[in-house]
Amino acid sequence: YRGVELMFLLCMFGIYGSFNWCNCSWTLDRTFYNDQEPLPYEWKARCYANFYQECVLPTNQNYGIMSYSLWLIAATWVWAPFFFNPSAFDWDKIIVDYRDWQHWLKTKNDSADSWYGWWMSELEFMEHSTGFSRFVTWVRKTRFLAVAFGIYLQLMHRLFYKDLHKAVADDGAASVKPIILAGAIFAVLLLLGCCGYIASRVTKKLILKQRQLRKLKFNLSAALLVVAVVGLLYLSMRTLVEVLVIVCLGAYWFLQVTICRVRHDHIVATKIAQFFDNVVGWIVFCPILFVAMFVPFVSSFQQRMMFNSAFTAGLEVSKLLGNDVIKLDDGKKAKPTKAKKRPSSEQHKH
């Protein structure tokens, strides 16, 4: 999860980060504006068009150079077990691992061979932790809500100010549309919590009514599909993706709140956690499946490298840690020599 979280933050940095900007004031071209201060977007466009060399180019930064080391760390966290596994890119082995992973996710019991059993055992320590430690955990997990709020602010600024070539008013007057959209997102999260409460109350009563449950799921899925199609008519794909990311971050923060409240065994909490584990699993598996399917020579190259005696000798843990190799001869104990028996007097006579 830490590697996936770091990759997500790097993607957000690449999308919303500023890697160059106009470092000059509009007074540089005062005569063009007749001593009248232009709007920020107007001066920015003219600065990039006419003063790029002297105002923008000195501030230019490269995203790849700034973030390649962090991408390397994230890739190591996520795919390190596959890098040093000789059969990691073997197609048959990957298919077997994928089936085992799906079986582990779908198994519904409390054993260690199921996802639910692993989930309960991983969070068992929360039941024995103090209230202060749970509060500190909640404060740490609030970073997901802060990131969601930051994406929301960027979305609102782009929709209602940047794309419309407007500046944020200095008198505090603001449009009600951002507030309406924020209320809609909050309503979705509130509806999620209400559904969880209702599900915990009526699940036992509706066990014998599976047909009604399937019909309800189908109707909800159809309604969501209609809403998504209608949304495409008024919103761009980028806007829908940003709203989806905000909702997912809010749902993950809601999951962390349930964990801090020691309600991780709730049906909604387990379903949300299983969904995120499934997503993270696909993030790990998809590149491995792609390499194994379309670049099969990587598997043979990896096997030759891993089974090379010169390469494996350099990967010994003792040498990596700088410890001396203990020779086997030094560890052997000297065998005690048995004293020879002196011949008796009768043997001398004979």
Brief rundown of the structure:
69% of the residues lie in helices and 0% in strands. The protein has 350 residues and is mainly alpha-helical.
The helix-and-strand class reads: mainly alpha
Shape: globular
Overall pLDDT, averaged? 72
Enumerate how many helices there are, as a single number. Answer: 18
Provide the gyration radius in Å. 32 Å
Number of β-strand runs = 0
Describe it.
The chain contains 18 helices and no strands. α1 (2-16) packs antiparallel against α5 and α12 (237-260) crosses α13. The chain has helices at 2-16, 30-33, 40-50, 52-56, 63-83, 91-106, 115-122, 131-141, 143-162, 177-202, 210-234, 237-260, 267-294, 297-306, 309-313, 317-320, 328-331, 345-349. The model is unreliable at 324-334, 337-341 and 345-350 (pLDDT under 50). 69% of the residues lie in helices and 0% in strands. With 350 residues, the protein is mainly alpha-helical. Pfam families: Glucan_synthase. This is Glycosyl transferase 48 domain-containing protein. Residues 331-350 are annotated as: Disordered. GO terms for molecular function: 1,3-beta-D-glucan synthase activity. InterPro entries: Glyco_trans_48_dom.
Keyword list:
mainly alpha; 0% strand; globular; transmembrane helix; transmembrane; membrane; 350 residues; 18 helices; 1,3-beta-D-glucan synthase activity
